Every structure is written in structure tokens, then in C-alpha cells.
């Protein structure tokens, strides 16, 4: 690594940079049974935190939490931490303080 200037990452077009939420690993059922992250009951969607968006992204902002299929995304390592890059259209839902078309359910 050089000691050059730090370069800020800016997402382009319809791309979204997401950090997986820490609770996306091992989880518990409502009865208290531990379900390992490797258990496959169905294709499991994951929640993540939006860190950056491209200038064509319309419905997601940095700081939002989004629901997506992590298997369909591209992974990138930034400063030793894994992040995912996806298109806005691959996001199934957004959890945000800005409500327009809410479900009445909250995280």
C-alpha cells in the first residue's frame, strides 16, 4: 500500500453498496432453537445497511436497511471487511424512517 491520498468510493449508476447486518449469521427460532447460518430451509433473504448509492438510485438512501438475496450479489472487500454490490432493482424491501408505501411492520 502506498501512503498516497485516500480515495473515497462513489457508487455509479444504479448500484448500491451494502454491508451485511451482523445478525445475518446464526439465528434462533421463536422457540429458542439455534439455527446455524448454513441451514437451508428455503432461499433466505438478508438485511444489510446501505453505505452508498449511485446517482440513478431513486428509492434507497445511505443509512437505510435493505432486504435482498445475498447469493445473487457481488462481494468486495474494503479495508478487510466484506461488502456487497447490487443493483437497486435487486432490492426487495427497504426499512427507512421515510414512509410512503409502508407495510405496518417495523424492524
From TrEMBL:
Oligomer and partners: Heptamer of 7 subunits arranged in a ring.
Family statement: Belongs to the GroES chaperonin family.
Designated name of the protein: 10 kDa chaperonin
InterPro entries: Chaperonin_GroES (IPR020818), Chaperonin_GroES_sf (IPR037124), GroES-like_sf (IPR011032)
GO molecular function: ATP binding; protein folding chaperone
SUPFAM superfamilies on file: GroES-like
Pfam families, A to Z: Cpn10
Function field: Together with the chaperonin GroEL, plays an essential role in assisting protein folding. The GroEL-GroES system forms a nano-cage that allows encapsulation of the non-native substrate proteins and provides a physical environment optimized to promote and accelerate protein folding. GroES binds to the apical surface of the GroEL ring, thereby capping the opening of the GroEL channel.
Top-rank taxon: Bacteria
Native source species: Amycolatopsis saalfeldensis
Keyword annotations from UniProtKB, A to Z: Chaperone
Amino acid at each position: 500500500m502506498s501512503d498516497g491520498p485516500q480515495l473515497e468510493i462513489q457508487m455509479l449508476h444504479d448500484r448500491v453498496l451494502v454491508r451485511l447486518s451482523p445478525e445475518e449469521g446464526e439465528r434462533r427460532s421463536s422457540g429458542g432453537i439455534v439455527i446455524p447460518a448454513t441451514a437451508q430451509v428455503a432461499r433466505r433473504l438478508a438485511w444489510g445497511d446501505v453505505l452508498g448509492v449511485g446517482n440513478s438510485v431513486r428509492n434507497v438512501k445511505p443509512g437505510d436497511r435493505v432486504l435482498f438475496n445475498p447469493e445473487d450479489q457481488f462481494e468486495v472487500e474494503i479495508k478487510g471487511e466484506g461488502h456487497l454490490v447490487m443493483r437497486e432493482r435487486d432490492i426487495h424491501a427497504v426499512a427507512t424512517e421515510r414512509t410512503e408505501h409502508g407495510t405496518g411492520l417495523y424492524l
